[in-house]
Amino acid sequence: MPPRITRVNPDRLHTPPGYHHITVVEAGRTAFLAGQCPIGPTGALVGENDIDAQIDQVVTNAMIALGAVGAAPSDVVRTVVYVVSDDRSVLGAAWERLTRSPLAAAFTSASTLLGVAQLGFGGQLVEVDLTAALPG
Prior knowledge:
There is one protein chain. The protein is of the alpha+beta class. The protein has a single domain (4-133), classed as CATH 3.30.1330.40. Helices cover 22% and strands 27% of the residues. The protein is built from two helices and six strands; from the N terminus they run βββαβαββ. It has helices at residues 51-68, 88-99; strands at residues 4-8, 22-26, 30-32, 76-84, 110-116, 126-133. The strands form two sheets. It has a four-stranded mixed beta sheet, with helices on one face. Helix 2 (88-99) links the parallel strand 4 and strand 5 (110-116). The protein is globular. The model has no long low-confidence stretch (mean pLDDT 92). This is RidA family protein. Keywords: Hydrolase.
């Protein structure tokens, strides 16, 4: 049986652009994915200085990780996106690319987008942290 997931935007809060303020899950199992990085199968950074290529690799990695536990993007109940930038237009472009990707359904849940000074791998520009409610 799939988990019951309810996404809520309270009337007295602003309408968010695509995500929801609150995600409620009634499920027995939850998967907490490590931050998905733009690292390819060989262990090398993909797309140095190319945020679009890095986002595409992060999406690929996230889809593989979700699939490994029997989950889909629609089972994601919380996302945190980290982008190395203090430029809001860069953050917005990263959000747009993610919400048009095969992982898009994940970003309709409770989501946070952060501009940060640096991430764990040299040259890394983006990372996505996901929490998913697993199907029965």
